[in-house]
Amino acid sequence: MNSPALSPRPPWQGRRVVLGVSGGVAAYKAVQVARDLTRLGADVDVIATRAAQHFVGALSFEGVTGRPVLTDMFSAEGAALHVRLGQEADAVAVAPATADLLARAAQGRADDLLTTTLLATRAPVVFCPAMNDRMFAHVQVQRNLAHCRDVLGYRIAGPETGALAAGEGDGPGRMLEPPAIVQHVGRALGASKAFEGTDVLVTSGPTREALDPVRFVGNRSSGRTGHALAEAAWRRGARVTLVSGPVALPPPTGAVVVRVESGLEMLDAVASRIGQADVVLFAAAVADFRPESQSAAKVKREGRSALGLELVANPDVAQETRAARKPGARVVGFALETEALVENAKKKLVAKGFDLVVANRAGEAGVGLEADANRVTLVDGEGSVEALPLMDKEALAEAVLDRVQALLEKR
Ligand code: CTP
Fold it and tell me: How remote is the CA of residue 183 from the centroid of ligand 1, in Å?
């Protein structure tokens, strides 16, 4: 599937990324990393070590980046190639970073184009280690890793636990998957002073209000906007907690995910965390009503020609947790309306103590709840009303966070 998320967009668009590839089986995944970064609009220069070339051919990388693969320190491009690449890069990612590459980087060696480029750059560097789990656990590897992280300031992304080249590993060693690596590169490119060190709390998805053990009352929210907001806030440098109702989405990279089912569970999860949050984004479609009572056993069809359903109001999560907010927290709400969009959004802004409301109209085909794209109007506490064009949910998340960033900068 050609995901809508893979079109040129910030923070990748127009940025220079050096992708270092060292020699491990995971090098095949680096081709997808190079492809996805390129689709997101980055200019990707792949530097492959000698060992990497045993695993993946240059043509694979050239095919997806449209740029030559760089391998040789002493090429016709000139001896200063490493300096130019290092200077021009906005971020350097090394995926996979093998045990050997970690050792050479930790020692400050300059014995090939990749290690010399690492010495020449002052851009953020992301290492994605990949090796056998026994090798990864070795004290020497751990020392090299700690040196790269603590002394050199490199960001270490992964590894995770899972299937390894030589069977199943018990411990970490497997390289992160390409979409996560792309997000880590995005965080290296996209960090903003305003978000760094802040705590962001996001609610997302629908809630399910149980009727009996197998049935529930719910709604059509996909959670895509909330998940996109969580990932985008993390890319800007925040610590992110996502409280999510049941959704069919992979967890967003970087966020701590708290899974809940019902509105009452969402209320508990938010109430215990909101006091630490500098920014709160209420993107969840909490069910406004829940069945008055829950049957412990499955409600049987037999003998019934109809089933009455008594619903009671669910708590309003945004409202009920208002007093517990951190003083000065910036709070964004959403409003789904079928009529009087701006007027109702303004009412919700005041009633729920939001600084910004993202208002959208229900019922437009291909837009909103279940769709990839949305058309919204932003309404803020100072009376500004801005209608945004139709955009996908990742772009919407960026637009909302631009506004939040401006609010944070005003502090
Ligand atoms: N919200 C919430 N808890 C609820 C209902 C809503 O936290 N039980 C939050 C939503 O996450 C959203 C905002 O309040 O940020 C407005 O949600 P919306 O469903 O548009 O409004 P309601 O308050 O439910 O009002 P109505 O359904 O009458 O339009």
Answer: 30
How far, CA to CA in Å, does 386 sit from each of 165, 291, 393?
52, 38, 17
Q: Is 335 in the pocket of ligand 1 (CB under 6 A)?
A: yes
Cβ atoms within 10 A of the Cβ of 4, count? 15
CA neighbor of 379 nearest in space, from 359, 361, 363, 351:
359
pLDDT higher for 360 or 373?
Answer: 360
With the C-alpha atoms ordered 319, 321, 323, 327, is the resulting torsion angle positive or negative? Answer: negative
d(CA 93, CA 155): 9
Amino acid at 200: V
| Plot region of 57 (φ>0 → left; ψ -120 to 50 → alpha; else → beta) | beta
Cβ of 354 below 6 Å from ligand 1 = no
Which ligand 1 atom lies nearest to the CA of residue 283?
A: 11
| Ligand 1 midpoint to CA 243 (Å) | 15
260-306 pLDDT, tens digit per residue, is 999 999 999 999 999 999 999 999 999 999 999 999 999 998 889 99
Is ligand 1 within 6 A of the CB of residue 284?
Answer: yes
pTM for the complete prediction?
Answer: 0.94
Question: Is 132 tagged catalytic?
Answer: no
